[in-house]
C-alpha cells in the first residue's frame, strides 16, 4: 500500500473474511442489522478470559488482578474507539436496557409537565422508555416521520421544541430505512432550545465512524453485537450529565461511579474483557491496509471505517440499482448508495409477494434475509405497512463481497 493515497486504497475483503470463522461464509448473509459476525479475535479474548481468569475481578491475588486488567482494557478500548473518556462509557446488557436505565436515571431531574420528544422513526429501544415517562407526569410529544418518504423534517422539530422540552430521542440511522440523519445539526437545534439528545446509533455504528464529541451528542447508544463484538450494549454520556443522572444501582454505589451506577445488572465480566477483540480486529485491518497506521486507536478506527464505508457504497449500489429499476417494489428510504446519505440496510415491500414469502424463498438460494417490523413497529405502521408481515430487510456489512450482493439481487429478482 506504500505510496498510495488513502482514497486509492480499497478494502481487502478477503483479508477481513479470513479474520472470521470459515463457517460464516457458507451462506450469503444479509441479516447483519440483526447482529454481525464475530471475528476470531473476540472469540479468543473471550476464551482466554474464561480459561485464565475464572474468578471475581478486583481481588488481591494474581488471577483476580488479571481479570480486572482485562475488563478495564476492554472498557478502555471501546471508549478510545469513539474518542470518549472511560467514565463516559457505560457497558450494559443491551441498548434497550441501557436506554431504559437512562430514562429512569434522568426522570428525577425533571418536573411534572416537562416534555420529551420522541420520533416514530425509532426502534422501540429509544422510544418505549421515554414514552413510559408519561406515567410519571412527563408530556410525550411525537416527532412523526413523513409517511411517504420515511424522512424526518428538522423544521418540524423546531416547531415542537418548547422551553419545557428536556430531551429529544431519535435514531442516527433507522434499522428499517438505512438513512443517515444529520446528528450534528439536529443536536445543535435541540441544544439551542435548551434540551438534550439521546441518539440511537445502533444501525449506524457497524458502518460508519462514531465521533460523539464532533457531534456534541449528549447520549449515544449502540449495540456491540452489531459492531463485531459479543452480545452487549454501549451507552456514551457526557461526563457532567452522567454525574447528574441518578444512580440505578445499589444505594451505596457512589454517584461519581458513572459507568458502574448506570449498569444495575453489574458488569458482564468475560464479555467486557472480550471487547478488546473488536479493537484487535480494527487494528488488524488497519495494519493490512495502511503502512502508516495511526498509533492511536481513535484515528485507526476512523481510517478503517473510511475503508468500510467505501466498500459498503459499492455493495449498496448493486442493491439500489436493482431496487430502483424493479417494478412492483417499494423501497423504504433514500434511493441512493451515497455513503454519507445511507448505510447499506435496505427494506422493501413487494406488490406481488408477501415479505414472509420472499424471505423464505431467498433461504432456498442460501441467501439469509428476514422480514418483519424489526421492533420498529411504530415506523412500519406509520408507513402503512402491515405490522405482522412487515418489510423484507437486506442488510450488508463490510465483509460482504460484491459477488454476494449480486447473488442477493439475482435471487430477489427470481423470487419477488
Ligand atoms: C436501531 C436499533 N436500535 C436499538 C436496538 C436494540 O438493541 P439491543 O438489542 O441491544 O437492545 C436495535 C436492535 O435490533 C436496533 O436495530
Describe the model:
This protein is α/β, with parallel strands linked by helices and 416 residues long. It has two domains: 6-37 and 306-415, Aspartate Aminotransferase, domain 1 (Alpha-Beta Complex); 46-277, Aspartate Aminotransferase, domain 2 (3-Layer(aba) Sandwich), CATH 3.40.640.10. Helix content is 39%, strand content 14%. It has helices at residues 13-18, 40-52, 62-81, 95-106, 128-131, 154-160, 183-192, 212-215, 239-244, 258-261, 269-274, 276-289, 297-325, 355-363, 377-382, 402-415; strands spanning 28-29, 89-92, 115-119, 139-143, 165-171, 196-200, 219-223, 233-237, 329-332, 345-350, 367-368, 370-372, 391-395. The strands form three sheets. A seven-stranded mixed beta sheet has the order 2-8-7-6-5-3-4, with helices on both faces. Strand 3 (115-119), helix 5 and strand 4 (139-143) form a beta-alpha-beta unit. Helix 12 (276-289) crosses helix 13 (297-325). The two termini are 42 Å apart. The relative contact order is 0.17. The model has no long low-confidence stretch (mean pLDDT 96). Residues 33, 94-96, 123, 125, 171, 175, 200, 202-203, 223, 233 line the site of pyridoxal-5'-phosphate.
